[in-house]
Structure formats: C-alpha cells, structure tokens
Amino acid sequence: MYKGQSGMWSWLFHRVSGLAMLLFLLIHIVDISMLSFGPTVYNNSILLFDQWEVRLLSLSLIAAVLYHAFNGIRIMLIDFWRKGVKYQKVLFVIAMVLTIALFIPAAYFVMGPVLSWFIHVPVASAGH
What we know:
Elements: H1 6-33, H2 39-46, H3 52-80, H4 88-118
C-alpha cells in the first residue's frame, strides 16, 4: 500500500484529471450542439465562457491536461525504462514542476481579462 507516498498521489491525480477531461468533453459536445439551434442560441451560450467562474473551470481543465500529459510520460518511462521504477519519485516531482511551470503562464492568459475587471491599468495615448 502506498500510504500517502508519491505513487498514490500520482495515481489519484491521474484518475481525477482523466475524469475532468471526460467531463469537459461532454460539456464541449453539448456546447457545439448549440450550433444546431442557430447562431443566436450559440452566440448566447458562448457568452457563458466569459464569466469568471467558467474561466476558473477552464483553468482547472488546463491544469488537468498538463498534469495528465506529463504523468502519462512518467508512467511510460516507469513501464519501458529499466531504471524507471528506481526514479519514480523524481519523475513525479519533474511532472509536477513541469505542470506548474506551464500552468502559470496559462493562468495569466486565462484569468488576465478577469483581473482587468478589478485592476485599472492606464493606457498611454498615442499622441502625447
């Protein structure tokens, strides 16, 4: 039994991130199906994606995809590389660091418009 070690957390996060991507796929299918009701219904449904709550969900999807991808590579290395089992904890840390490193700029781009609602950034005029 793992008893809270990196292998258990890796397994749990991998399953949860996979389920999150499956849920997104189902939502995406419903979203795209709105096209069959006409452009007005579709455009109104797309407006939902500009809400900050939905942006947070999009951000969590990005985190899930990044982790799932890097952990999948980790699992392949453990399965097909002789020394993979020996380095599984190091590979877990690498997967987490890569996930976080790529998540931070993604968070800026996804949540940037939301932050502009709260923080006024003056824009310099071109003529002065």
